[in-house]
Amino acid sequence: MCEREPVTTTGGSPARRSAGLRVDLALYLLYGAFAVVLLAGGTDFFTYRVWAGYAVPGYLGAAALTGVLLLLRKDDPRLRGALVAATAVVVLLLPLASLVVSWSAGVASAVHPEVVAVERGADRLVAGEFPYLSAEELARHGSSTDYTPYLPIMIAFGLPRALIGPAPLTDPRIVFAAVAVGLIAAAAALCPTGARSVRWWTIVALSPLTALPFHSGGHDLPVVAATVLGFVLLARRWTMAAAVVMGATMAMKATSAVPLVVAVVLLAATRPTREAVRFAAVAVATFGAVLLHPAGLENARLLATDPFPGVLLAEWGVLGRTGSVVLLGVVALGLLVWLVRRPPRNVGEALERSAVCLTAAVLVAPTSRAGYLLYPLVLAATARYWMRGADRDRRGSPEMATGCRAGS
Q1: If DSSP codes are grouped into helix, strand and coil, which group holds residue 321?
Q2: How many CA within 13 A on the CB side of residue 126?
Q3: pLDDT digits (tens, 9 = 90+) for 105-156
Q4: Which residues touch 116 (CB under 8 Å, ≥6 apart)?
Q5: Which residues pair with 305 in a beta bridge?
Q6: Three-state SS annotation for 251-286
Q7: pLDDT class of 184 with cuts at 50, 70, 90
Q8: pLDDT tier at 16 (50, 70, 90 boundaries)?
Q9: CA 345, CA 350: separation in Å to the nearest integer?
């Protein structure tokens, strides 16, 4: 079921009552240590250094307050939740506001190329041009931001700036964040007890994997938030609504194809075949906007080149890139066989399998970056803290979990 983590009360041993606080303290210290490394010169990105200036006091301050609660043995979920909210203001909102204002003032280093790519695509669309450059045009341009690797719905996040003009509130990062928060709020409203899990918010909202893109790029946030909403809709058995959401998510970024495939396998294994077929048909129809996107990958200079195995292999010339594509195909085929032979039986298992598949893709894809680990992190945490396994009928056969039941 869609449940929250156990809430400790005044009963039980002191060690049991303080277990949640100890984990919180460890997480805040881990996040703070990462921010200290960046602040001390562990990055060349101006945006990350600005974030670290806020994150170090934010995380370490949260760790100190958690230590006080631990000493007082005040393992109150309301206090822990309030601390998460206060920390989010410091490590998410303040650096975002600072960098958005800087970008509006003309500081080129206050934004990452993905935001510029979205803005340029929206500018071309508003000007009546095709939002994507052709392969020939890409070959004549030298900037990595001339290639837009995102699908059509992602371009819409740049429309406020293109229509209204440059301003802090029209920055695509503001739009990314607002849409992501709205989608997560909708998912939380449909899964009220699971959304009360303080641990989920501590991991998902405050992790550097979320905080870094929140202020610098942000385009992955609405994608992963929409994926969570899609699975929550499946858990509520609102299958066609889930299909529309997941299809639209795929029309933002191709990464979301993995959870969509897992969702189809889940439905095929747990529901009548016609329902799985309808789900896939509606999702593909919604995804139809992707046909606007040209190829041109061979002419693009992509920046997703963190040193994962697939990226390192792709750097060995034509042979290495071919090998990396073959490796990705073999891994994808192996994962597909695994999904078919051991299909998920509930939404929690589908989220877990999506997390495994996306982690594998991050590791072996020819272009990849550490920030893409945001996807498996969020999906795995949602499986752990929002979905608690399969409901079973009286005969013991697994069914698709209703998972998020209203009022549960």
Answers
A1: helix
A2: 17
A3: 888 888 888 888 888 888 888 888 877 776 676 666 655 556 677 788 888 8
A4: 145
A5: 368
A6: CCCHHHHHHHHHHHHHHHHHCCHHHHHHHHHHHHHH
A7: very high
A8: low
A9: 7
